[in-house]
Each structure stands twice: as C-alpha cells, then as structure tokens.
Amino acid sequence: MPYVTLAGTVATGPDLLRLLVVPVFAWTAVRDLATRRISSSVWIPLSLLGTAALVWDGWIAWNAGQYAWSYEFLLPTAISLGLVVPIAYLFWWIGGFGGADAKALLVLAVCFPTFPEYTLGSWTVPLETPPLGAFSFTILTNAVLVGVVLPLALAVRNAVAGRIAPVMVIGWPISWERIPDTHGSLLETPTGRTRRGLDLDALRMYLRWRGLSLADLREHPDRYRDPATLPAEPNPPTDGAVSADVSVRGDGRTLESDGDDTLPTAADDPWGAAAFLDDIDGSAYGTTPETLRDGLEVLVTEETVWISPGTPFLVPVFAGLVIALGYGDLLLGTLL
C-alpha cells in the first residue's frame, strides 16, 4: 500500500486526510460544553471528507490484494456502517443522544471505519488494536468509558469541598445569580433533591416568553404567580440557549378579563406554567407544568441551588477519539 510522509509522520494518504477531523471535533466539544448548540452545517463537510477518505482507502486496499480488501477494509467498514450507524440512530430515537451527538457518531462511522496507523520515529500508534474491528466503534467504547469516569471525578470534587449529598455524583451547588447563564437542570424541588428537575433552557424560554428576568421573579414572586400578569402578547421563547439574540417586552401589558371571570387564577395555574406550555410551538425539553412550577418555587426562595450541568456527549467523544488515535482501544487494553 502506498504511504505518504509528512513532517516525519508515515501513514497512508487517507489516514493523513482523516486527521483534519480532529481539530473540528475539538471545536465542537468546546462549543457543546459552552453552548449546547452545534450547527448541522458542521457535519456536511466532514461527511464529504470521510467519504473521500473511504473511497481512497478502498482503492488502496483493492490494489493491495484480496486479503487487504476483505479483512483490512471491507470487514471493518461493514462493522462501522452496520453497527455504529444503527447504534447512533437508535439512541437518538429513544432520546439517549441529542441530534448533534448522533450526527457526530454517523460522521465518525464514515470517517474512521478502519484502524489508522501513524509512525512517529520509532513509535507506531495506536498502540492497542483489536485483530478485527472498526475504529469508530473503538472511539464509541472509549467515549463511554470516559463518560463513566466523569461522575466519579465529580463526586471526588464535591467530597473534597465538603459537599456531601446524594446528587454529588451528577452536580454541584451554584448561586441563583448564575442560573440565567448556566446550562443543565435543577436537582431540587420544594420537597427535596431530585435527579429530574427543571431544565434551565426551559426556564430561559419561560422567562423570555414572559419578558422577565429571574431577579424580577425573586423580587415579586406573589405577583408573578398570578397568571393574570401573563403578557397579552408573549415574546418569542427562543430555544433557551444562553446566547440567544432576542429582545423582549416587559410585563406592562397583561391579560385582561372580559368580565366573564374566565381567566385562570393563581390557584388554577400558578406562574402561568400551563399557559406557557400550551402557547409555545413545540415542547420545552419535556418540561411539565408541575416541573416548571417546582423549579420556580425553588429559584425564588433559595440563594444556592444544586444543578446538574450534564455531560455534553461530544466532550467524551472527542476524548475517545484522541485516546483511540494515541493509545487505541481502552476496553481491549483493560481486559488484556
């Protein structure tokens, strides 16, 4: 098979081409951590790059002979496209992955079906490679193992700080003032801790819809519990992103009764939570009126709240990619 030498690195042409994926995945991991938003346009050029590398790899393997074509190219490619792609789709379909996570795995299945090989002086990486296997599947298993370690690291961090709580493996406490600029979900309700509290993106959607800030709610909670103070012309809720560019009206214009007493009362719909969810186009990340009300009650009374930032899956995916390129298969190395 023909090899290309670049700055002391020896590898096939397709494997060198695949290295262009690494900085792009680094950028997506950073952006996913900061904003939880990745444009779909990122994946199109990566898919084209992966397709070009795949065709180039196939041509090299075909010319190298039957063994290289069948066992070094065709079999791992079949595993990558026939296993990783369905896994990505399945987990997206059941809600285990976000859209960007699933697209990232689809791109990796196309870009890295076979194990690359890079020679750096006397070193050849990856170090641990299975006899038969798809490199994209190794990236996925590495990402899962990294994802398992993160809660343990979070628990240690909380324990060292003296923050001992049942939710210490998935979150930490922050001031209410940081909530408007934080991604994640609340781990508290008025009755105690929970693992499925209010999504903070849904909270931002609600506040923008009403034209209010969290500080406004905290200053006048009794007023804003009353759905009669809902705006007559609500603002666009956006998608809840911290960085959303939106201007909103305040609460000066409110719903008014026509004299038939049909407006909901604070007892019927505290905070106007049901009215908000009924009015928006789509859902607020699965938020229910009860979850929204519980979250608001906590946020207008507590100075510090526990939140779970979650782990944007593109972060362990990028870590899994880097580990795979350098070390190889973590699962194989652990078992052997």
Automatic annotation (TrEMBL):
Superkingdom of origin organism: Archaea
Region annotation Disordered: residue ranges? Answer: 223-245
Q: Which InterPro entries match?
A: Preflagellin_Peptidase (IPR052218), Preflagellin_peptidase_C (IPR009655), Prepilin_IV_endopep_pep (IPR000045)
Compartmental location: Cell membrane
Q: A Gene Ontology molecular-function term? A: aspartic-type endopeptidase activity
Q: Which residues cross the membrane?
A: 6-30, 42-61, 73-92, 104-123, 135-156, 313-335
Q: Name one GO cellular component term.
A: plasma membrane
Q: Which UniProt keywords apply?
A: Cell membrane, Cell projection, Cilium, Flagellum, Membrane, Transmembrane, Transmembrane helix
Its record classes its membrane topology as: Multi-pass membrane protein
Short name of any one Pfam family annotated for the protein: Arc_PepC_II
Task: Tell me yes or no: is Transmembrane helix among this UniProt entry's keywords.
Answer: yes
Domain Preflagellin peptidase C-terminal intervals: 300-330
Q: Which residues form the Prepilin type IV endopeptidase peptidase domain?
A: 20-149
Q: Indicate what this protein is called per its UniProt record.
A: Preflagellin peptidase FlaK
Annotated source species: Natrinema hispanicum
